[in-house]
Every structure is written in structure tokens, then in C-alpha cells.
Amino acid sequence: MLNKKVSEIMTKDVLTITPDVDVINAFEKLMEHKISALPVVDDDVLVGIITATDVGHNLILDKYELGTNVEEIMVKPVVTVSSDDSIRKAIDVMRNGASDSNILNQLPVVENDKLVGIISDGDIIQEIF
């Protein structure tokens, strides 16, 4: 099962956001859809990602000025996988892809810089169990 391709379990209909959206609106979209991350796309090209944890934490600390756009706070470059990668590789990327000791919970799936899906730790757990 860990040799299955990412494309077999990824979410293909991905909610995204554009770089020009206000941070407050982006956070509302995260909360409304109960998701932990939003890939940031510009003409279907992945340019960044924001997470509910990062945005929410910084909103509480009042780190954003009124009118701050997603482009100013998004994480880039984005750690990604290919749809042809194995689930095992996705797990390795999640474990080793964060800049600190954290584990990535969401991995955008890209082909030729275009977002084609997203795979989460929850997708992987459902596949294993």
C-alpha cells in the first residue's frame, strides 16, 4: 500500500487562493472549509502556501497590518510531491520537508509547476488503516 502512487489517494479538487487576497479573508476560508492549508496559485501555478496555524497564530499576535495580502505572508518555496511519487516518498517528504523539527501535514501535488492535487497526513492514515 505504501507503493501506491500519490495520484491514487490525493484530493484532486483543491481549494486554493490567489496572492492578492487579504489575510483575513484567507483565514476565514480556511475556517469555513475546516482545512489546515491553502495552496496559493497564480494562473494554476503554485506560488506559495498558507496554513491555518501560521495565519491564526499571527492574527492573534496582531502581526498583520490591515490590508496585508496572502503574498506577503505565504510560505515559499513550497515543498511538493509529484502525482507519480509513491505514498512512501510522500511520507518521507512530510517528515523531512519542514525547515524545523515539525512534520508537514499537507503536500501540494504538482506537475510542471501546476497544482494538480493535495495529499494530507489524514489521506495517508486512511489508506494505511
Automatic annotation (TrEMBL):
UniProt-recorded Gene Ontology molecular function terms: IMP dehydrogenase activity
Alphabetically ordered keywords of this record: CBS domain, Oxidoreductase
EC number: 1.1.1.205
Alphabetized SUPFAM superfamilies for the sequence: CBS-domain pair (SSF54631)
A Pfam family annotated for this UniProt entry: CBS
Cross-referenced SMART domains: CBS
Top-level taxon of origin: Archaea
Annotated protein name in UniProt: Inosine-5'-monophosphate dehydrogenase
Species of provenance: Methanobrevibacter oralis
Lineage: Archaea, Methanobacteriati, Methanobacteriota, Methanomada group, Methanobacteria
Gene that specifies this protein: guaB_2
